[in-house]
Structure formats: structure tokens, C-alpha cells
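chain below, 302 aa
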Amino acid sequence: MRILVIKLGALGDFVQAMGPAAAIRRHHHGDEIALLTTEPYAELARAAPYFDRVLIDERPSLVNPLGWWRLARLLRGGRFDRVYDLQTSDRSSFYHWLMGRPDWSGIAPSASLPHANPRRDLMHTIERQAEQLRLAGIADVPLPDLSWAARDIAHWGLPDRLLLLVPGGSAHRPKKRWPVERFAALAALAARQGATPIVLGGAQEAALGAAIAARCSAARDLTGKTGLGEIVALGRRALHAVGNDTGPMHLIVAAGAPATVLYSAESDPALTAPRGARVTVLRRTDLAELAVEEVAATLAFG
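prediction:
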């Protein structure tokens, strides 16, 4: 069989789809499996042991008929026998029609393997996808494990005791962020206990990394310097990680690090929090109400 899995983003959602991807691979062990995703996740997808090839969705706009023609040709050219739509958006559901309505697991109106639970949007992502696959005949969906994604980080010459800090998050939702000065205070506390704080984030979060490093000389600012595979490698080595509700925390937890994830009223951990054996979720209506001492009490060292 020719199988297509659809997962377009975002980062946290992509990571949480890797458990279902492993279950699909096990179920279709003798079949060819392709993934349709977007460019930001292509490198990670190509490293994954679950897919034989990776297709890129350029997400054409409604006023780009040439882009839609290319996408339709890409999808129909795969001659897929079954599609597991893990994106389950209006856009990905439209692809069912665009592809000529193959065997389909998802929420498309005419899906042959529908996930028709009316409360699906009230379920945690991991549980929702596990139920979707169970209805399609695939049981035993594991939690995501990204150990295969780790890249070499020896060139940084890091010490053994690492505390990862992820102070950033969605630029248009600043209330999802714990104040940067609290991250700096936590970094200083960890340094006094012999740990090296490592600040992670994209280039757009360089100011946050610089602010923490300015207040804690022991901190290493790696904002804008890590790919997804390097973040996984750091997660595999870390004593602990602390961060906001943002994609890199999903990578770090899936790498196996103990973690404390901070939530405000802007998002619901019951729906989206990283899942793992050693994950602590702290939530306040306003993260400015969350004290450094309370976060420090969750650290797996000291």
C-alpha cells in the first residue's frame, strides 16, 4: 500500500504527532509511507525512521491557482491508497477532495475512517490522535520519542550539569511568557547549585537570551544558534528544563528531559501540554504571579 500521513505544523503539534507516526509505521511495516508537511519541519521529518519520503506543502493561498495545481499534481501523483490526516484542519480535509477521495482517516466530510467524536476538540492532542487511529484499526500509540533526531553538540564543549531555559514563545501572545527577569533569577539560583543555564530560542528571542546572560554570567546564550536536532541533543543531556508553552519544550520533553512547563490563562495544558514521565505543569492566570521559588522547587537537582 501507498500511505500518506499529513502533519503540517506547528512545532509542538508536529512533535506530538511522532507517537502516532511510530504506530502507523508499525501497523504498515511493509508499506510505503510518505509524509506531507511544511518546510520548517522537513529536516526533522527526513531524519525520522517512520517515513520513506517527505513531501512539502507550500500552502498556496486561495488566489494562487498555479500553487494549487502543483499541490494537486503532487498529491494525486502519489496514488495513495490511504491517508492519515493528523492535521485535521479545514485545509487538510479539503485535500481529501483534491486527491480524489482516497481511503481517509480524519474529519473530512466523506472520510471512510472518520473521527466523529463530537468532543474531539476537548481532548488532549495525544489522546485525540490515539482515538483517531484506534478507530482506523491502529492501537497502542506511544508517546513521542525523538532520540533519533539528536545531532552532535560536542563543538559547544558544554559541561555535564545543564539547566535548559526556554524564555520565548509566540510573539503575538506575550502573556504566555514568564517574565524574563524571573528566568534570569532562576538561572542564577541554578548556577549557585553547580548547574550551567543554557538559554534556547530562535534568533527573534536573542534579546531574551542576552538579558538572562547579562544577569547571570554562568549562563550560555544559544538563542538563534540551535537547530531542532541540537535542541533534542541538549534535552537528552539536561538535568532539567524550564520553559513557557512553546514548541521547543515539546522537543525537549520528547528527548527525555525532566521539565517544568509554565502556562498562563492564554492556553490550556489539558489540551496541549507535553506528555512525559517527568513533566511538571505550573499554571497561573497571569504568569507574573508565579514566583521563582515555586519554579525552583520543581527542579530535578539541588
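The mean pLDDT is 97. The longest strand covers residues 32-37.
thats it, cya
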